[in-house]
């Protein structure tokens, strides 16, 4: 058994028969009333996002989740096929279970979250920052650098992101997979 003091970002909780991951949490204290703990929760096995409030010290039900490294092989009608790097076992995961799926390229490392109670995958995460190749973007206009202006660029996965004007087609860049933001140029 765990209490509200064990809540932290990334913990998976079981609520009303569904699994939710803690995105954000905090505590509200007032002089007269008991402290309350609140959390923003993202559905792991559903597409819901909810907010929940508990009295401080109340019992919560965390689910033990393991992260295992898998490699993305290919996509077909069954979903995204991944291979365990240690056992070479292959699994298929639905597109909505993968965070940042627009930035997933063949051969990329993916951390698969596995519910240890049922041994079933409950989601997958890309590394926070990845290196990608720009396949298309308009040339930058010389002298237009006074503001933090950006332009659209298509990367090798087919996704379109905003990049600074000085970035050119054919360059490799590092992007944040959580937000889709440009981070920096990578020298080859």
Write up this protein.
- The chain is mostly beta strands and 188 residues long.
- The protein is built from no helices and 18 strands.
- It has strands at residues 2-3, 12-15, 18-28, 36-43, 49-55, 59-60, 62-63, 65-76, 79-84, 90-93, 98-99, 109-115, 120-125, 129-137, 150-155, 160-164, 172-176, 182-186.
- The strands form four sheets. Strands 10-9-8-12-13-11 form a six-stranded mixed sheet, with no helix packed on it. It has a five-stranded antiparallel sheet with strand order 5-4-3-2-7, with no helix packed on it.
- It is flat.
Keywords:
single chain; 188 residues; mainly beta; SH3 type barrels; OB fold (Dihydrolipoamide Acetyltransferase, E2P); six-stranded mixed beta sheet; five-stranded antiparallel beta sheet; flat
The average pLDDT is 88
How far the N terminus sits from the C terminus, by CA atoms, comes to 51 Å
So how many helices?
A: 0
The strand line-up of the biggest sheet is 10-9-8-12-13-11
CATH topology of the largest domain: SH3 type barrels
CATH class category of the largest domain: Mainly Beta
**Any guess at the CATH architecture of the largest domain?**
Roll
Q: Describe the biggest sheet? A: 6 strands, mixed
Estimate percent helicity.
Answer: under 10%
Write the H/E string, N to C. EEEEEEEEEEEEEEEEEE
Shape descriptor: flat
Spans of at least 5 consecutive residues with low confidence: none
Count all strands and give the number: 18
Strand content: over 45%
Query: Which structural class is indicated by helix and strand composition?
Result: mainly beta
Our Rg estimate from Cα atoms comes to 21 Å
Total domains: 3
């Amino acid at each position: 058994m765990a209490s509200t003091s064990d809540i932290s970002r990334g913990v998976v909780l079981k609520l009303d028969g569904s699994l939710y991951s803690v995105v954000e949490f905090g505590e509200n204290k007032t002089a007269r009333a008991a402290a309350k703990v609140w959390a923003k929760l993202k559905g792991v096995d559903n597409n819901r996002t909810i907010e929940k409030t508990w009295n401080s010290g109340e019992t919560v039900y965390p689910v033990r989740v393991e992260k295992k490294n898998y490699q993305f092989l290919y996509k077909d009608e069954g979903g995204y096929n991944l291979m365990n790097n240690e056992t070479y076992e292959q699994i298929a995961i639905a597109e909505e279970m993968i965070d940042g799926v627009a930035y997933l390229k063949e051969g990329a490392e993916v951390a698969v979250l596995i519910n240890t109670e049922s041994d079933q995958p409950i989601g997958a995460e890309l590394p926070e920052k990845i290196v990608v190749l720009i396949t298309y973007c308009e040339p930058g206009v010389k002298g237009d650098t006074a503001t933090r202006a950006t332009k659209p660029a298509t990367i090798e996965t087919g996704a379109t992101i905003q990049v600074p004007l000085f970035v050119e087609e054919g360059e490799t860049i590092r992007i944040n997979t959580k937000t889709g933001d440009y981070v920096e140029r990578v020298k080859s």
